[in-house]
Automatic annotation (TrEMBL):
Full protein name: Glutamine transporter subunit ATP-binding component of ABC superfamily
PANTHER family in the record: AMINO ACID IMPORT ATP-BINDING PROTEIN, GLUTAMATE_ASPARTATE IMPORT ATP-BINDING PROTEIN GLTL
Subcellular location: Cell membrane
Key words, A-Z: Amino-acid transport, ATP-binding, Cell membrane, Membrane, Nucleotide-binding, Transport
Ranges for domain ABC transporter: 6-251
Source species: Rhizobium mesoamericanum STM3625
Length: 263
C-alpha cells in the first residue's frame, strides 16, 4: 500500500475536562475522497482542524505525506514540537474550505483568490492574478472575477473560497460542511466543483451531511460518534444493511432527498 496522504494515529483531543476525540486512527488514501460523517458534536470539525493544524491535538500523531505535523511523539508519549518553519511547510500541503466562506468583503473575487499569493508567497501582481484567474476558470467563475462577495450568491462565494484554497496548490483538500450554509438550490454547483476536483485525483477529506455525495463520490467513509470512529469502510460496506444502530439513527436524521435510493 502506498503512503497515506494523512495518517492519524491514536489521536486524542481534550478541551479542559472534555474529551472531544479519543483514540482516533485513520488513514486518508492518496487521490481518494474520504468522507467523515456523524452527528452534530461528534468531533468532525475538531478532527479536520487538527489535520490542518488549526487545533493542536492533545496526544497522538498526524502524518502528512510521511512527515509528522505539529509534534513528534516517542514510545513513552513524550512530545516534541516540530520547529515552526518546518511545520508551516508541512501544513502548506493542506487546503481547507469551511462552512462560512470567510471572503474579504472589500475585495473582488480575483482579489480574494490572489491576495495570499501576493502577500504570503510574494508573487508579482501579474503572476498572482494569472494563477488566481486560472482557479476562477476552474470553478466556473471567470465572468465573476471582478465581482465583490456581496454581488455573488452563496454558492458562488463558496466556489471563490475553493478557488482561493486551490490557488495555494495544496496536495490535500479538507472540506468542513461546505454546503451547510447554502440554500438547497445552491448546493449542487459546489458539489459539482468538488466532484470535478475528485475526478482530477485530488486527495480530499469531506465532512458533509450530503449522504448522497458521500455514497457516490466517497471512496472511504468514516463514521464518527461521540469522538470515536465507530467504523470505516467503502460506502457499500458502511451503508449496507443491517446497519449499526447509531448509524441508522444518524441516517434517519440527516438523509438527504434522493440519497435513500443510493443506499
Ligand atoms: N474550542 C472549543 N472549546 C471547547 N469545546 C469545544 C471547542 N470546539 C469544539 N468543542 C466541543 O467539541 C465537541 C465536538 O465539536 P465539533 O468538532 O465541532 O463537532 P462536529 O463538527 O462533529 O459537530 C462538541 O461537544 C463541542 O462543543
Ligand atoms: Mg462541525
Amino acid at each position: 500500500m502506498s503512503l497515506p496522504a494523512i495518517a492519524v494515529k491514536n489521536l486524542f483531543k481534550t478541551f479542559g475536562d472534555t474529551t472531544v476525540l479519543q483514540n482516533i486512527d485513520l488513514a486518508i488514501p492518496q487521490g481518494q475522497v474520504s468522507c467523515l460523517i456523524g452527528p452534530s458534536g461528534s468531533g468532525k470539525s475538531t478532527l479536520l482542524r487538527c489535520m490542518a493544524f488549526l487545533e493542536e491535538a492533545t496526544s497522538g500523531t498526524i502524518t502528512i505525506n510521511g512527515e509528522v505535523l505539529g509534534f513528534t511523539e516517542n514510545a513513552q508519549g513524550v512530545r516534541e514540537r516540530i520547529p515552526p518553519a518546518a511545520n508551516r511547510a508541512i501544513r502548506a500541503q493542506i487546503g481547507m474550505v469551511f462552512q462560512q466562506f470567510n471572503l474579504w468583503p472589500h475585495m473582488t473575487a480575483l482579489g480574494n483568490v490572489s491576495e495570499a499569493l501576493k502577500t504570503v508567497h510574494k508573487m508579482s501582481r501579474k503572476d498572482a492574478e494569472e494563477r488566481a484567474m486560472a482557479q476562477l476558470v476552474k470553478v466556473g467563475l471567470e465572468a465573476r472575477a471582478g465581482h465583490y462577495p456581496s454581488q455573488l450568491s452563496g454558492g458562488q462565494q463558496q466556489r471563490v473560497a475553493i478557488a482561493r484554497a486551490l490557488a495555494l496548490k495544496p496536495k490535500i483538500m479538507l472540506f468542513d460542511e461546505p454546503t451547510s450554509s447554502l440554500d438547497p438550490e445552491l448546493t449542487g454547483e459546489v458539489l459539482n466543483v468538488m466532484r470535478d476536483l475528485a475526478k482530477e485525483g485530488m486527495t480530499m477529506v469531506v465532512v458533509s451531511h450530503e449522504i448522497g455525495f458521500a455514497a457516490t463520490v466517497g471512496q472511504q467513509i468514516a463514521f464518527l460518534d461521540h469522538g470515536k470512529i465507530l467504523f470505516t469502510g467503502a460506502p457499500q460496506e458502511v451503508f449496507k444493511k443491517p446497519r449499526h444502530p447509531r448509524l441508522e439513527q444518524f441516517l434517519d436524521t440527516y438523509l438527504d432527498r434522493g440519497a435513500s435510493m443510493l443506499l
